[in-house]
């Protein structure tokens, strides 16, 4: 008698295939089928199902289905032990029924359960057993012509393969993982083509939930391959799609599980990318939604590190211990190991090496039992760090050698980078063969620096620089100093300084989805190139362009080039930009140009050379303490408000006797800055270059820590002290009051890799002077910077003279009409820059409207909140950001630009130096006049108008032949007046922050 499965229609017309000989089950009642067709039953084996009645069969089948439903529910709540027991009972029934499809369903689900519990050995065995049984069952299906059953076991193959996709991804076998994902998509397409007549609904993915699960696997593969930017964008799209499916009853449970999986993945991506607050929000949401379940325990472990670094170390430890107990009870051994590793990390950070090692070894026992190879790599790295902390270098080397060999075998570039860094750390700390350490450290430091540019979000790039690239570069700079390799150190500094502009993945638009947003274009926005931007206040899709290939000098390539090729080969670096960019500008004949680049890498490093001798390099480390002292004095004197300080209080502090309010206070600051930041060989060479009466040109690219330095104001020491000086001793190093401005002209040096569009054609000047900001009082925080002007004011008379010489933009009959206009918004700016113009002079408010990244530095124009842009509105006003300029279709900037506002030259002080200053350069400006700190308004000195004096000087210089020389000459006149009459109106606080970023002679008008 045949029960359960329908009998085959035709008797097999060929012998039993060899692969079915050793099988104990072929998918259904094979012995019964043999008898049914009058075949010899001996080769088919005796099966229990042959003796079952139809009723018994149906009852057992129903019991198996109920057990599977129960086991799935237990698996969703991560009750691993309960799921194991229930799937075991299901398998017993499957064997009684001779139902391979049920057995494979149980085993494939068990593979998933084992993987979620961290039992990678059994997860792999279960998944591979399913695929092997699938082959055998397929042979039986073909033999008997019973093709219905293949549709019943195909789902189990898909589940098993997804476990293997995860395992291959963790092991670094990206190609195999992608091959399996592609196979799943190919078969899904074939099933959909066959339709519901051939396959049940659960195999047709009617709502697309299975595809979303595959996309989560894609995200994991992207992360393993180093594509953090793609992973970050994809996970957001997945979560949006899952939200749209959340209310469909048939897949509600599946969607909830996928949402938890996706949010956990996003939390990991955000943590890796430095988006700590957003990662914390994901983890807190998971913890709240799954309270009392193992997923909540996992989330609390991830949150414990924040708690520890916030100062509650005992609370963090107690949280991990409690969560680990919950995970032990649930049977989630993999998460238990993670908890022990997290606990060990905190203990090692606290200096308790012995207890940290105990926790790491506990995790290692679980990873060993589970055949978790990536986990065992982490164990070796952790134990190597423990051994280093105790000075046991031999043991540390043994552990890190194992970890490195495992990472190389896996092909995981990030693990290889990490383990190589630990090995380099051990070698450097122990003072081993430093050349061997260099061979290891230099390529990995270059690779770490390059991978930073693969992240889309600036937070992620900054976190990567802080936690990965930064430490590697710091160690490398120290090593190059010990090896006396100034050229390599200088080239590394120049490469670090050569970062490019922000670029959008989809071209010059702020569309976040890859297609232009549908916007209702109101009449006021017609013809506006920015109209397609939309209102975007979330993270911007901006990549920072990596450095292109650099050229050191006309006669010398970069010595770093072969090291970069080695780094690309060793760590699978993404493709580099094809252009080669010179690192030096052209210089005027007979005038020596000095090139100074500063880079922060633990200490601050300076490299300098001159255009007359590009191949002779000078490299100097400036100790962190010296830079800190310089910053302390400068911050105390600068009128830029500190946190919680009002602008008025900041100005009063800056104009005090200890700062810029007296000549003695200002001179002391100039001398402290010079002694700490200008090396003796540079000072001596500067003086020598000026001996013939021709002022050299000093061009400086400051590091973030030195962005606010007024370089022209620095005093030139006559000698160096042989000991650390007290503040009242610094005068012993100076015979006079000679400043940098006295012997040289000074300008800022643009990063070499900023791509530059051609400037606008020559035409009238454009003036945006003190725009009225919607919703802001003239006396408020974003009020007037020029104060009340009238026809007799010096600035208005200057503007009237300009009007007498020819037209200006926007069109005006008098100079007074150019000030405090209400229409100077981004629409007018786009219109004015669309035609010929010789220069742009902006005077107004400049600020950082969000976070510490350049893209959100902004000009405050007369823009209302309903205009499109990337910044969140401030009341009824929307600032115009560097991102708006960089990613819009706005036409080129004029060749000369003035951005006279608070710290408008602060780009170099940001984690990523691409604010309004460098955005203007990228848009075509060859020269940009800006200020390095907040400018006090003329209200600070009643009866004088230093702000107008500065604006007039800038506009006059920009209209001249050599703006840098003219502005430096003007500053020398201000310095002379300050020396003669050190009164508040003449204070350097008003004129010393002015600087020019001069890119006119760089010869790099190119567009990436």
TrEMBL record:
Region (Disordered): 1-20
InterPro entries for this protein: TPR-like_helical_dom_sf (IPR011990)
Name listed for the protein in its UniProt record: CHAT domain-containing protein
Source organism (scientific name): Amycolatopsis lurida NRRL 2430
Biological classification of the source: Bacteria, Bacillati, Actinomycetota, Actinomycetes, Pseudonocardiales
